[in-house]
Amino acid sequence: MTFSNKAIGRRACLAIATLALLAGQAWAQGAAGAPRVRFATSAGDFVVEVYPDKAPKTVANFLQYVRDKHYDGTVFHRVIDNFMVQGGGFDASYAQKPTRPPVVHEGREALAKGGDKNVVGTLAMARTNDPDSASSQFFINVRDNDFLNPSAQSPGYTVFGKVVSGMDVVGKIKATPTGPGGPFPSDVPRTPILINSATLIK
Question: pTM for the whole thing?
Answer without folding.
Answer: 0.84
